[in-house]
């Protein structure tokens, strides 16, 4: 299983981000799993991902990417001008992650949270790991 995006299923911003990615991932490169799901917890364990990671997580070719690196690597496969953001990987990681951390730290306050994980439509269900 390559190209898996792990996300916080109760975060409104994260759920919106998943919908954003799906809409622009016309080749269905990515599959998704909530960090709260059984498969999400299994993948965290399997890849020795620290449980305190406050980030979107990309598992690509058995490598794990976090924070801004994950977000920018995801952009590489999105349609349109979004793929140009991949070039921002040349910006030093501490600078990129500082900005990422501001959003991550405040995402519940700014965007709220939900009581349940995102429920995909029947046609998108195959892209979600459970």
From TrEMBL:
Protein's name in the database: Thiol-disulfide oxidoreductase
To which species is this protein native? Anaerobacillus alkalidiazotrophicus
- Example of a GO MF term: protein-disulfide reductase activity
Domain of life of the native organism: Bacteria
- Cited InterPro entries: DCC1-like, DCC_oxidoreductase
Pfam families linked to this entry: DCC1-like (PF04134)
């Amino acid at each position: 299983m390559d190209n898996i995006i792990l996300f916080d299923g109760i975060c409104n911003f994260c759920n919106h981000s998943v919908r954003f990615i799906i809409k622009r991932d016309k080749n269905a490169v990515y599959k998704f799993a909530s960090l709260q799901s059984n498969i999400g917890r299994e993948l965290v364990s399997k890849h020795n991902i620290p449980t305190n990671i406050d980030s979107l997580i990309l598992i690509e070719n058995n490598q794990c990417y976090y924070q801004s690196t994950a977000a920018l690597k995801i952009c590489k496969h999105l349609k349109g001008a979004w793929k140009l953001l991949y070039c921002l990987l040349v910006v030093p990681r501490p600078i990129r992650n500082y900005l990422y951390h501001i959003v991550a730290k405040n995402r519940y306050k700014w965007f709220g949270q939900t009581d349940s994980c995102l429920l995909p439509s029947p046609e998108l269900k195959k892209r979600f790991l459970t």
